[in-house]
Amino acid sequence: MREVTPTRSAAMELGDERRLMRQGYEFLDEKRMLLASEMLRQLRDYQERSDRLFAETKDAASALAAAVERHGLDQLQLYPAPEAPATPADERGLFLGLAMLSTGQVPAPAATSRAAIDPSPEAKACRAAFEKLVWTAADIGLRASNLMRLAREYRRIERRANALEKVLLPEVGEAIKLVDEQLDTMEREEVIRTRWSSPGLDVGKGMSPKATSRD
Questions:
Q1: What is the C-alpha to C-alpha distance for residues 164 and 166, in angstroms, rounded to an integer?
Q2: What is the distance between the alpha carbons of residues 162 and 75, in angstroms, rounded to a whole number?
């Protein structure tokens, strides 16, 4: 419990402080709800792309099996690779000051510097399937980083909101209550002191001067 001098100005300052704390808590609570909503949206996107990655992995495995069956593993390993393999480029957005990343559109397959000795639709389909798979995996990685940033920010806001709601606001409320009680007590004492020290009363006996003279 903080030490506060029981004065009217101290009570007003505490009231202003509590009002600002409540405004801060409302702001943090709203930001917390927005972060939770965005996390749920990002989680749905992450789950959807995880399902897509699972399906594309199966397609890539089937394409690889078909290409190996057509060329054999040794010959398929010598199949010309793209001269400049497509690298996923992230697209950046902002949400409450946090960077939100995604890979955007899948680019067209890169050209090769030399022709294959034994080109086949199976080999081309295998390369295309794995290029698509890499792109989806990169997108999942970026969205996982989005979720981590959102969760870290949510925990930070949660700690601040809880500190205001469960520690600081109750502490200021108790201080205001104590100051009000002390001020009320001081006012009552002042009223009693003023009444008994008025000219028409005998402070010593609690009787008026006229009643004393009659005795």
A1: 6
A2: 63
